[in-house]
Amino acid sequence: MNSWAKSLPVAKSKADLAYESLHRAIAGGDLKPGERVNMDELSRALGVSKIPIREAVKRLEADGLLVTRPHAGPVVAGVDAAEMRGVFLAREAIETLVAELAAARITEEQLAELAEVHAGMRAALAAGGTEQLAELNSRFHRVLAEAAGYRVLAELTDQLLLTVRRYRVAAPLDTASWETVAAEHEALLTAVRSRDPRAAADAARRHMRSQAAQEPAA
């Protein structure tokens, strides 16, 4: 490919837009595990034919987010509670490494964003709202993963966060548990702000183990 072509903006296809729309709905809990995806309604809502919808569904099936059942069509895949043990083990390994790397590499801009997200979580808790907390939690960990400097770690972080969010649609955290998350984020933020890789890794490890302990199957 010519060098000039590489700089051209990439237009999203209708299948891409359908994929992103469904992905957001699943991640946000608007489409819950076991819920059927009505392809006719989705086609009308997005103003596209069924062809890009089918393409999006195939991609989401490959991602493990949808499954096709006989006589029912595509439905949102469930999250096996027994598998959450593996999810939290993976998160502990990855988040510990991410925090260690981020403490050494994080920029002032990323540090400010991390602090802003944490303040948003504290504000939401003080106001008695929990609706925004799952997304704020995901953003906190995404900023850390980006600061670590490796795309593969950011992608793995996203994948694991999505699994946890889907699981918590059926098993949500209560306010007291979210308060614990915020306190653990505070410790992690302090360690990263101090540019102390070992302290950051220890804070992340404690955070993941604490969260795993709250899940009966983990």
UniProtKB/TrEMBL annotation:
All copies of domain HTH gntR-type, residue ranges: 12-79
Single annotated GO MF: sequence-specific DNA binding
Residues spanning the membrane: none
Protein name: DNA-binding GntR family transcriptional regulator
Annotated spans, Disordered: 199-218
Keywords: DNA-binding, Transcription, Transcription regulation
Pfam families (alphabetical): FCD (PF07729), GntR (PF00392)
Source organism phylogeny: Bacteria, Bacillati, Actinomycetota, Actinomycetes, Kitasatosporales
Keyword flag Ion transport: no
